[in-house]
Structures are given as C-alpha cells and as structure tokens.
Please model this.
Amino acid sequence: MSVVLNTDKAEGRAADELTIGLINNMPDAALEATEQQFTSLLDASSGRMPVRLRLFALPDVPRGDAGRQRLELLYSDIGELWKSSLDGLIVTGAEPCAADLRDEPYWASLMHVLEWTEDNAVSAVWSCLAAHAVALRLFGIRRRRSAEKCSGVFSCAKVGTHPLTEGMPARFLVPHSRFNGLPEDEIGAAGFTVLARSPEAGVDMFVKEGTSPHLFVQGHPEYDTYTLLREYRRDIRRFLRGELETYPGMPRGYFDEVSAAHFRGFREQALADRSEDTFKRFWASCPEPVLSNHWRSSATRLYKNWLSLLAMRKMALAATELSLELNDGRRDSRQAFQQ
Model:
C-alpha cells in the first residue's frame, strides 16, 4: 500500500511523501466505512507516491459512545490541525440536523477549518454538505432542497478542460446521495469553475482557482460498491419506524432489474404493513443484489490528478526554499570574504 494511516497521531513527515488530512464528519454508523473508502481511493490513486493519511474530527459533531471511542483511538484532536503541516485536506459531509447550515452545531469549527486552509494555502476537497457550507460562507449561495432525494449513480459530463479532470472520459458515472443541491447559475456567478454536471443530478464538481485550488464535490466518488445499498436500507428502516414521512425512492441507475423488481414489490408490502417486522421478513428473503462499481476508474483518476497537483506544488515550494537557502549561503560567504 502507498497510503499509510497515521494511527499514532504523530506529525511524522518524510520529504518524499504527501501528508493528507481527512476530517471525517460522518455519523458514527458510517465513520469507519468512510475512513476505509477514502483510504482505499487514495491508495488506488497514489500509485508509487507515498501518502500518509491523518484523521481529524470536528468536536461539535454529535457522537455516541462508539463514535467517541473510535475518535479517541485513531483521530487527532482538531487543535492539532492548526499546527500541522499538510499537503492537502479532505473534508467530508455530515448528516444535516438544521434547515440552515449556519445553525449546525459544528458550523463555527468548520469555518475555522476553511480559514486555516486559506491562511496556510492548503488545497482542500470539500464533499457534499461541506461543499454547501463553504459556498454559503464565501458567497452566500444557499442550497436548495429537492422534492425527493437525489440518490443513485448518475452519468456526468465533463465541462471544458482542467488539470483535475485530465484523462477522465467525456462522460463518467458518480454516486449521489443528497436532498439538497447548489444552483449552477449561482455557482457560475460566484466565480467558481464547473468541472462536471449531470442532467438529473445537476452540478457534480466545481473548483475555486487559486494558489491552492479548492475542489467542491456534490457527489460521492469515494463510495464503495455497497454504500448506496446500505443507505437505502437505512432509509427504509427509518420509514418503517416512522422517522421518515414518505417511502424512500430507489437509487437510480444502481440495481439490476431483478433486484429493482424485488424492491418495488417490497415497497407495496411496507406501505401495507409499516413495521419493523416487515423489514426483517423482507431482508431475510431478499436475494443479494448484483452490484458493480462502475465509477471507480474515474474516481481514481480524479484523485490521482489532485495528488499530482499537490506533489508538483510541494516540489516547487521545495525548489524555491532551496534557492533561497543557496542565495543566503552565497551572501554569507561574500560577507565573510569581505571581512
């Protein structure tokens, strides 16, 4: 593996490796899966490039006992981020609790992270809700709630050319899983560059240019093969327990026709008998869906491009520092000679 998880929470940093931070804001049930998804994707994308991954968490994200124990075991305190030296940062979304993102308990901490990336010129990938929060903070762009959840695997088209999408096909697949989205007209008016869009899912990716570009992703290229299935199952159970008012829509472009027909049949059973027992009976008899990860290659290419940009920037900074040191050395030598 090229990616090493920095479980000792130390700052250790070799000259030839990239150090990437991951701020994992996902709920307890998805905490470990999210770690694995990004670790696997970075490993597939890095090739022979050594990458060290450091885990961080915002202290204001609600956690249960299991989540807090995992954070204590593997994660660095967010205070360690402010004095760390990272080459890049990934910030995940979170399960929303408030209608206005500024009312989320972690809003202030997340904005502190944004300020830190800007002050230290650290390139960041902002995923889903994190992307929405930054767009709101920087340009007042409010996300809009859809009538139904945008869930499934969608075909996205590249827009123009950009180093982050170099080598990706003209059209590629990306999982999406969200109720809210950002309007493209406001994204463009704010000066962002749209990198990919889907007729069904809207803008998939956009970027804020600068010395250290910030990538905003409304989809989830990091998802593994079964993530959407787990989320669909979770939402069905929430409906059956009365936590959701309407039955969740089936993820689009994800199931084979046999599995889709089976899920459509269960929907009728669930609407007729809304109980946890119905779910247990159904899942016990449900055949294993035939699923494929058709988005992996494009996701790998996206993150390979990002890591390559980080590596080139690191080399350029090292060359600049070396040049300054050599110039300082020559000046000291001349002064010594003159004396």
Notes: The longest helix spans residues 296-338. The radius of gyration is 22 Å. The beta strands are 3-5, 18-23, 51-56, 88-91, 123-127, 144-158, 171-181, 193-198, 202-208, 214-217. The longest strand covers residues 144-158.
